[in-house]
Amino acid sequence: MTIDVSAILKELGGKVTLNGTVCLNDIGFLGGTYSFKEPVNVLGDISNNGKSLILRAKCTGTMLTQCARCMKEITVPIAFKLDENLVQGDDGNSYDEDVIVFDGTAIEIDGIVADGFLMNVGGKYLCREDCRGLCPHCGADLNEGECGCDSDTIDPRWAALVDIMKNNE
Asked: Per-residue confidence of the chain (169 residues) as pLDDT tens digits?
């Protein structure tokens, strides 16, 4: 989504309204993949405060990801806010890392929206709060029923801790 800001660059207090959508590509982050089958809605504005342009917007949509326990694909609603400082030109000045530098009179906000998503995404999502996950032995989905595996079997990596617990009793 490209926003023409030429009308507000020299106008203190000038404002451009944002009301559109941004198509995000699949994003891999924190061991998960986040897909967007529909565009993300962006509603807000860009205003000139005299020193820079201020982008304030609310982004909403839905993403597809996997349940962290049972690996089923789930749809999760997303909503996050953008509050960004935009400065025109690459004049060699060093800017604070919180500033986004743009060239010309148009701002491409797709990358800004993607970065905003990454700053607000949670690490793990569940299909439901009481998801039982997968059996560690056979991989069966325990939400669909018991698999018949022996759940009392101790992982050999933890066997030494079991011995310590028995000695302390």
From this structure: 999 898 898 888 889 999 999 999 998 887 778 899 899 999 999 999 988 899 999 999 999 999 999 999 999 999 999 999 998 876 556 666 688 888 888 899 999 999 999 888 877 899 999 999 998 888 889 999 888 887 777 777 877 887 787 777 6
Q: Give the global pTM.
A: 0.77
CB 56 within 8 A of CB 116: no
Question: With left for phi above 0 and alpha for psi between -120 and 50, is residue 101 left, alpha or beta?
Answer: beta
Residue 123 structure tokens: 């690490």
C-alpha span between 44 and 82 (Å, rounded):
9
Q: How many CB atoms lie within 10 A of CB 17?
A: 11
The position carrying tokens 């996950």 is 133
CA distance 159 to 140: 24
- Could you give phi then psi for residue 98, rounded to 5 degrees? -85, 5
Rounded CA gap, 100 and 108, in Å?
A: 11
